[in-house]
Amino acid sequence: MPVLMQINELTKHFGGLKAVSSLDFELHQGELLGLIGPNGAGKTTVFNLITGLLKPNAGRILFREKNIAGWAPHRISASGIARTFQNIRLMSGMTVRENIRPAFHQKIKYSLLSSIMKTPSFIHTEIEMDRRINDVLSMLQVSEFADQYVEDLPYGIQRRIEIARALCLEPMVLLLDEPTAGLNQKEAEQIVEVINHLLHEKSISVVVIEHNMRVIMSICSRIVVINQGQVIATGMPEEIQKNKEVIRVYLGEKRST
Ligand SMILES: Nc1ncnc2c1ncn2[C@@H]1O[C@H](COP(=O)(O)OP(=O)(O)OP(=O)(O)O)[C@@H](O)[C@H]1O
Ligand SMILES: [Mg+2]
Question: Which residue, by CA, sits nearest to atom 30 of ligand 1?
């Protein structure tokens, strides 16, 4: 499969801390890549760099032959990269549909005049938008919650709604930061089903950060392991499970916690 995203020498310092240090890895088209490593390894920072929430000190992020490193977040999401957050970022006091709509508005740009005048093209687009929101909610099997306030919903449903919101951007690449964190086994399995659907039916390439090794080992075609901001291993799940450096890092983490 061709390379969709290539990360070279990516580096981010916070003061004296090298959170990400000369990191290299690539994402192939149609791939489900796992990004794992102990707490504080730099995983979320990598997502923040890819999505433009942080600017790198050095390095390149080549996506569809453009270096997107340092671009503004809205430009990166418009180019085809969407994400979810480790800590759910839904707006309380708003329904599921209201939480998802802004993601669509980000994609569809109206002129101010057409939205004030409610022109036929504006109304048509709004109807089309609702139809697409319904499609995405139905794909994630959360249609029944569309008009409920997000804070009233179980955590497992909120996680799926976060994914729905990211999908409204119709991304080529989806970055999932610990999508099964805080979920029970059944809810985690539902998320796995969703991810598999995205890969196989929607041809979206996915990078997933996870601490749940059962999930990672069962769904990823390839895994990148990072520790202290650096890649320590890359390979297929069975290779990673046997890798001595990976075992050492994970055992070290267990002893210190
Ligand atoms: N905005 C920031 N300012 C300062 N330090 C930060 C910032 N973001 C992350 N760090 C530090 O960078 C390091 C990497 O953090 P990061 O959140 O990327 O780790 P992680 O691998 O996602 O960990 P976890 O598995 O716990 O989510 C940590 O030491 C963290 O404290
Ligand atoms: Mg993290």
Answer: 40
